[in-house]
Structure formats: C-alpha cells, structure tokens
Amino acid sequence: MNSFSFQNQTNIVFGQGTVNQLASLVAPYGKTILLVYGGGSIKRSGLYDEVLAQLKSIDAKVVELSGVEPNPRLTSVNKGIELCRSEKVDLILAVGGGSVIDAAKAIAAGALYDGDVWDFLMHKAQIKDALPIGTILTLSATGSEMNGNAVISNWETKQKRAFGSQHVYPRFSILDPTLTYSVPRDQTVNGVVDIMSHVFEQYFTLTENAPLQERLCESVLLTVIENAEKALENPNDYDARANLMLCGTMALNGGLISVGTQNDWASHGIEHEVSAIYDIPHGSGLSILFPNWMKYVYKERIDRFTQFAERVWGIERGSKSDDELALAGIEATREFFNRIGAPATLAHYNIGRDNLDVMAREAVLFGPLGNFKKLQQEDVKQILELAL
C-alpha cells in the first residue's frame, strides 16, 4: 500500500424527503442562487417546483441556467459563468445527474477566474478558488455529487477533457432515491455501467498489499450487480434504487475505496475521445470499451483478473488455467452488460474506422494513458479496433 492523503468536505443528506432540507442547507451561503439543470425532466417530475418553493421560503433570488447537455458543453458553462458574474451569484445549485453537476463545477471555477475556463481542462491553469456548490442528485452514476471531478466537452474542437480540484467539491448533496424512480431505463443502465467502471479503474491496479481496498471495491461491484436488475424490473423499488445511489457515491468520492493504490483511468480516457466526436452516452461508451481494455491488458497482472472472476462473478477455478479463469471473468462482465441492455460494439452507434487514428492520438495528448498498462497511441487504436 502507498502513502496517501484523503479529504472530503461534502455533506451527504440521504433519504426520502430530504429535499425538504434544502432551504436550511442553502441559507448559510447567501441569497442569490444559480439553479443549473438539464432538459426539463425536473419540471415534469415536480422537483423543480419543490426546489423553487424551498428557495422562496428563504427569499432567495433564483437565476436559472437550463438545458445542460448529457455531455456538458463548454458553451453552457460559459453561459453560466456570465450569469454568475452579472448576477453576483452566491451559490450554484445543480439539480440533475453528473453532467449537470460537472457543468456547475466548471462554472463555479470559471466564475472566479480571469482567463478562459477551458484552461483548466487543458492543464494550462490550476483552480485556486470557486463559488460554493450544492447538488440535488437525480441519477445514480458518476459520483460527482461527492467529488471534485468534472468532464466538459468542447464541441467546436471535438475535445472532451477533465479536471479535478478540492475547490469544487459540493458543500452539500441531497440524495433522495425516489428522485431516480422516473429515470428512463437506458439512463439507469448507463448509470450502472458508469458506477462499475469507476470501480474497475481503481480495482485493476499494480499496487500490492491493499486487501481492504480490494474488498471495498468488490463489495461495491457485488452490490451493484445484486441491485441493478431489481431496479430495472421495478423502477420504484426503493431499496434497489437506494443501494445503487449509495454505490454511485461510494465508487468515486475522492478515492475512499482505493486510498493508497495507483488507479488506471485509461478506459475513461479512451471513451472521452469517442464521445467527444460522436456524442454517445458515457456509460454506453464504457460498456463497449471496458471489456476490450480488459482483454488487452489482463496479462499485466493476471492474478487480479483471476481474483475478479472468483470473488465478483463467483466463477470456480476447477481445472481452469489462469488465462481461462481471467478470460471467464471478463466474459462474465460482458454478459452482464449485455443482459441489462448495454451496447457491446461501436457499430451499435454506427462508428467505424474513420476516426480511429484521431481518437487514439488525442487520447495520449498529455502522455501515455493509464497505469495498469501504459498505453501508447497504437495500443489505444488496437483497443478501439477490438471494440468495432
């Protein structure tokens, strides 16, 4: 196990009816609130009216930024920054899933920065300060409600980039599992894949002698597997939705399940290049790419993959060789994704070979990708070819 420092400032308020605590959570930060949300589902569900009623009870001034995209665009972020500056916003309240929260984080950082917010995404500047953020989560997926990460797309340059900073951790996040009842099936599936993929990025590590972290990762994976199909069969199953929601938060909240280990993140880096060009759902891209990344790298540390097969998928070794057992675990992952309805190939989105070289080149723009196996441009291209 490696040395580490872990800190997380987010206040998680979890459970049915917790939106009723919004007024008291917002009040300490000021009266002018930027309300950030997506395509209107919060209005159809009635959540929008609940939020406004809570804010009205403390005489808050509400400024709205709606229409944040599933792969949040730089253009939306810049609109939010302009609103924060012109309206002298005290707090940004993100109501939605990870994309809305990610946009809010970029807005919070950009509002207090003299330059172009894209500088943070291109590693040209570091975030020194940010407006405070609160969130109401409506989709179990990214963990953005309890971490300092954000991913933003620049549609003009066809780039999708990420940043991370302690300054943009939400101050509070309201997690009411009932708010996920109305999430469409495909978004629930993508959320499940995203949660599992976050754990994969931390579980497949070259760091040794970290048994607690391994079991924490495995427990999150097992809980997701146990509850995913329950939630898909009965969207109003509170326990299944609650377990998925907590798994999403635990899977990526600053590294709690993987402290002291070296993470990978290559598959996310590759997916960002795919969705930067083709604008596909992030979870779908991960469901296509991750099993192919696994097949490409598993021999780097085959014991981790045999352990994965046995502990997560319950595959007995019997007479299987290490190779056979490892590949059986990878195939079980693919079969699970297939079973819940996640796509398996890039062809599902009519993606062919046209931009493979571009995506492979952009993936290693800042150097080799990943840590489990350092991927060069040609490695990335081969993984993409496996995914066709």
Automatic annotation (TrEMBL):
Q: Which GO terms describe its cellular component?
A: cytosol
**Matches recorded under CDD domains:** BDH
Molecular function (GO) terms listed?
A: alcohol dehydrogenase (NADP+) activity; butanol dehydrogenase (NAD+) activity; metal ion binding; methylglyoxal reductase (NADPH) (acetol producing) activity
Keywords for the protein's UniProt record, in alphabetical order: Oxidoreductase
Q: Which residues form the Alcohol dehydrogenase iron-type/glycerol dehydrogenase GldA domain?
A: 10-177
Q: In terms of domain of life, where is this protein from? A: Bacteria
| Listed InterPro entries | ADH_Fe/GldA (IPR001670), ADH_Fe_C (IPR056798), ADH_Fe_CS (IPR018211), BDH-like (IPR044731)
What are the Fe-containing alcohol dehydrogenase-like C-terminal domain coordinates in residue numbering? 188-387
Q: What is this protein called?
A: Iron-containing alcohol dehydrogenase
